[in-house]
Amino acid sequence: xxxxxxxxxxxxxxxxxxxxxxxxxxxxxxxxxxxxxxxxxxxxxxxxxxxxxxxxxxxxxxxxxxxxxxxxxxxxxxxxxxxxxxxxxxxxxxxxxxxxxxxxxxxxxxxxxxxxxxxxxxxxxxxxxxxxxxxxxxxxxxxxxxxxxxxxxxxxxxxxxxxxxxxxxxxxxxxxxxxxxxxxxxxxxxxxxxxxxxxxxxxxxxxxxxxxxxxxxxxxxxxxxxxxxxxxxxxxxxxxxxxxxxxxxxxxxxxxxxxxxxxxxxxxxxxxxxxxxxxxxxxxxxxxxx
Length: 290
Ligand SMILES: Nc1ncnc2c1ncn2[C@@H]1O[C@H](COP(=O)(O)OP(=O)(O)OP(=O)(O)O)[C@@H](O)[C@H]1O
Ligand SMILES: [Mg+2]
Description:
The protein has helices at 3-17, 89-97, 136-146, 151-164, 180-193, 210-227, 238-244, 270-275, 277-289; strands at residues 33-36, 43-55, 60-73, 78-82, 104-109, 112-114, 121-124, 198-202, 230-234, 247-252, 255-261. Helix content is 37%, strand content 25%. The chain is built from nine helices and eleven strands.
């Protein structure tokens, strides 16, 4: 066993001895966050480790997905997370969303510890997971019902965001009648409609064609500039990270390798970035880090 693997197993055992270090999904279930623990703002991620365990007939197979992630996303900041496949990006997002417990470490949002899912956060995953028997608008309304948005406001709000993602003609369609990219846009509308403090997006535009992707990127920036949410955005595209974010965080092998400020004026365009010296240098730097 390598020294690092030995250390990680020791950490895991320590975490088992200190169950308070793992979130209890039952606690604070309505908000998904616990009592105020610090005055920090934004998303504070400290010492996050995650080991997945898979039990086979012969042994327990452990995957060390996160090896101590520390990251601060400032309130209302747009941060992109990039890194090779399997480096732990989705795992980080799921832990922030409260859908997964860390093996060790914690996530604190606006001074409150994450204990489980909550309406202060909304997540867009790689695939949208829509209810096939509900129409586009009703899928969004359902999310608003879970988020305890007053009934009188649900339909108007759902329609507003379905229109924002360019599905005005498809309010009454069912997911099975939509293309994969259109379904993904319903997932994005659903997250935006909750109007969360924190928006977690996991390669949300990966399934979209280039033109729709560009439209969705500028729509997201427009919404973010207008409504100023804290956004953590996973992407495989360096250009997308530079186009959208204030800061790009590079992950490798379950930890943060580097944080790079994206010091470019807004509004930005992909065409403009092709000629901008700072953007070219940023792209070169990020490529080197990956
Ligand atoms: N439920 C699970 N059970 C066991 N191992 C898992 C599970 N989910 C993820 N892993 C493992 O954890 C590691 C990190 O996975 P994760 O999905 O966070 O990576 P990622 O950076 O999001 O990758 P991608 O860019 O391909 O989406 C990988 O080695 C993966 O195989
Ligand atoms: Mg992933």
